[in-house]
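Dear colleague,

Following up on yesterday's call, I've attached the two folding results inline so they're easy to grep. Please treat them as preliminary; we haven't cross-checked anything against experimental data yet. The first protein's sequence and structure tokens come first.
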Amino acid sequence: MCGIAGIFHTEGLKPVDPDRIRMMCDAIAHRGPDGEGVWTAPGVGLGHRRLSIIDLAGSPQPMASVEQDAVIVFNGEIYNFKALRTELQALGAKFRTDGDTEVILQAWRHWGADCLTRLHGMFAFALYDLRERTLLLARDRLGVKPLFTARLTDGSIIFGSELKALLAHPAFRREIDPLAVEDYLAWGYVPDHRSILKGVEKLAAGHYQLLRHDAPAPVPVQWWDVSFADRAKGNADDLGAHLLYHMRDAVTSRMLADVPLGAFLSGGVDSSSVVALMAEASASPVKTCSIGFDVAAFDETAYADRIAQQFHTQHWKRKVSPDDFSLVDRLGGMFDEPFADASALPTFRVCELAREHVTVALSGDGADEAFAGYRRQTFHHREEQVRAFLPGALRMPVFGALGAVWPKADWAPRPLRAKTTFLSLAANGEDGYARALAVTAPELRDTLYSPDFRRLRGEYRAEQPFVELMRNAPGRSGLDRAQYADLKFYLPGDILTKVDRTSMAVSLEAREPLLDHRLIEFGARLPEKMRVRGTTGKWLVKQTMRRYLPDDVLFRQKMGFVTPIAQWLRGPLAQAARGLASGGSLARTGWFDSARIEALAEAHIAGTADHSRLIWQLLMLRKSLDHLG
């Protein structure tokens, strides 16, 4: 795992200052503390920071091909590189190293951009072809590894693994995009189709861009997609056998490393499944790490302990105390863009703990998106059945009226929290699912904004790109379209951003075996009844893993990485909540109705309402603005 950065001139072959590349790489030194390098040629410069995982001494970057006609900087891992190396050698390719980086170089030389479809792994890389004078920027299928780009006023394009690499370039101008603020308030993160800063783009997952000198930057090309339109045939036993084969292969292929390797273990279905399959494949005890909370209602370490004991892992755990809010200031700089998923705090702490013992950790991310493990997906599946039964002319006025008058009651038992469900049922499937996924509903956002910000936002609403993505999804049903949107929108924007930034902040490589693209493609073909049955999501995964895991782990209510922010904002962070409206970078923007925010903060602190998610969003937005200057 590494960090990359670079500069490419689209207007002539102007020289590139290597010191500027070095500055950009220094800003992301945490991604690669084991080595650094810069390479420049007329019109292009590439920089690299290395975290050594495979071929520890033999694969420095930037790396040139044996023929000296191509140079690459690469962030990620290619898990099938040995098989590709053998195939390329049969075609006459020569190799000087034993790692995966040189395999990409030779794959490009022999297959061009088609080489991307042969790479199994997580990656973002920049490859300069000296024969064609072109720069290939590429990102893996699911977006595990990030890549930011921006065009400067001199016609050059700069790129880097994190936004902070671009911020280090002295000619880069910082201007907030108000539409990104609308996106952030809706979702709790800035999705991949936007950046918090104007002019910055994120290369989309499964896309590449081929840049040429003296030519405008082309639109990125999609080289991979997943379809939910086809259905696999077979009974549960047959499909479960195929599923287990793919899961085993995905896990074992990601256990290759020349450094200590372990796993995150929360005690949930996904991380427990990964650990079980690692233990099956390993001759030595698996190293596992878990994080819990001093607040009993949020603590899952008992389940993690049980799995660790069952598979005889070498297990470390640590508890996050209620005063761990001290990390809040650091998160703004860690993510660059505002990021309000509060599980980033315990995720960072478990990465810290893991880095004390290993350099690579396997995680359980991705199965919920691919196999319908989220509660909102099972709800949406049932809501779609209601929509199919009741015509819109009846459904919309009835459920719309109920949703309008039903009180919002986040504090109440789950069966009484019906407002969101009623409003969702009143809408079509795409709008309803967007509402279920959103952190802050459009009606609430509108009450927060100042008149000036509403003018800046114009007609744009954050839900529009999501609804369009879902509406055009390759699938047969509402569940298909919801899962597709989660894979394309929520997964890279929230989950993978969180894991990448928190792990890289401590120079830890995190690998996601359940995001193996062959496993994802298999999950997308499963019949709906193999994904959802009644209120049980991820049905086939749970049935298949019963040979490894106890039912009370497989079928207990999903908790996730919950953080006690509501208590923090009534206690040690109460003053920070009160100060949001009255001073600091957030208040100076003039984007928000200060009286409205002050009233929400005071109601939360007094305990008469729970506005913790919204206040946390605004607090993290303020921290990000402070970081961006």
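Below is the second protein, in the same order (sequence, then structure):
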Amino acid sequence: MTTPKHIDPVTLEVVRNKLEGIANEMQSTLLRSSFSPIVREGLDASASLFTLEGESLAQAIAIPIHLATLIPVVKRILSDFPPSKMREGDIYLMNDPYLGGTHLPDIALIMPIFFQGQPIAVSATMTHHQDVGGMSPGSIPTNATEIFQEGLRLPPLKFRDGPEAFDQTVIRIMRLNSRIPDTFMGDIHAQVSACTVGARRVAALGDVHGAEMMCALFAELLDRSEIMTRDALMKLPQGTYTYVDFNDNDGIELDKRIRIEVAVTLADGRFVCDFTGTSDQVRGPFNVVPSGSQAAAYFALRTITGAEIPTNGGCFRAVDLILPEGSILNPVEPAPVNSRTATIKRATGAILGAMRDVLPDVVGADAAGEMLALMFGGVRQDGRRYVVGELLAGGSGAGPKSDGVDVVETDATNCMNMPVEAFERDAPIRILRSALRRDSGGAGRQRGGLGIEREYFVLEGEITFTHRGERHFCAPSGAFGGKDGITAHTIIHRADGTEEVVPSKLVTRLMPGDRVTIRTAGGGGFGPPTQRSRSALRDDVANGKVSAEKARKIYGARD
């Protein structure tokens, strides 16, 4: 690989690390400044830097779905508002999935970065907002049948003209459409702060290198990642590989499984993901606009090409997607899309699953692949509205040399569960139990990661409860003789003694005295269970991760 003579390789590497540091400083500002617990505690927000052409320049350690779906958002805003007509201090926003966004709670803000009056880059953030209106608190109604029921749609808009003049009309519209307007706007201004930090830091780099050299460095960084990515792809086994997995249902037709089928082709430095054979778009909100499938493919690409390649838009030039129109991965407007995360995660897992047989040292067994989203909304006794979200994970799949990780976000999501103290502070609910779910990890030479068991008790008031689950009916597959992970299970115990089993997705009402018991899925096991180390199995039993009964019955333990 040759570097142009006018670009010093050492300078290039210093600038690359500086840009990544700036993106992470933006992320820290975003998380520390936000008002909502889903961002402050759940970390459901992301920051990134872009070139003026709309390619990723540097990404924070954040949410892969956000980092990828920001790409079409930034490109759309730059198309509607060309950089040549922007002013320093301008800010733009949008969230419309059918114009390049992902789902309505994810609002993107971008700010052009200027040096000596000349635009040189873009800082961008995306935050999952706790409530943007729609038919249920939290804005992820699993029973929505069209996007108009999901909340406020924002096309590309100028949000601030110059350094001070925010558009008060846009602010009034946004506040009016949220059940928690102060929290909503607090998170919006946290995004403004993060973008401002990015703009200031990158502009300061211009003082060292100048505008022309900065743009040359940006271009070289992307070109180098492209070359490295294509070289890595060429070294992998060439050919076409397939995989099929399923989501439980679409929230409307509860007995109808959703098929995700992919054929991955590696050839000539290209990474082609063909989703022909995937289910048609569904009535419920589990459809995914193309930006979501793009996020799945980008994550899988980075998984198999190696961490030594700097992640930026150059890597993604090698990706091609085939998404049949009218499928669940390329729906026709106004199909609902608010619960798209579940489908993106399954698509990601399918791409990786397709590569497992030819890359057994890289790709492990199936992860639980669920990000269980719970939303609780209501009115306190003093009249204040609240909306609190909870994101729960299952176990990761076991690998060829290591057990799966317990209760961890995998693939294209990277959020955290809510600490009990933070949750109980923000909602009139007590968490009675939070523990690892014993025996949930798939048995194997390497055991799948465990899911979580959590129990909620309603203290006061009527609560609108949204449960967006997966893996209740379709278990995570084991690999190379490993057993499947245990499926998820949720029960509502009513105060009158009756019980309701949640069929993966549900919007319902909870009353004082009601309890909800959540059990998330475990990851698949890797290799035959009888080959598991006896000492590792004894530790599993001693630590409560595997029962003595299962140790004897499945693993063949004698003591």
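For the second protein, one point worth flagging: Residues 375 and 425 are 15 Å apart (CA to CA).

Best wishes,
A.L.
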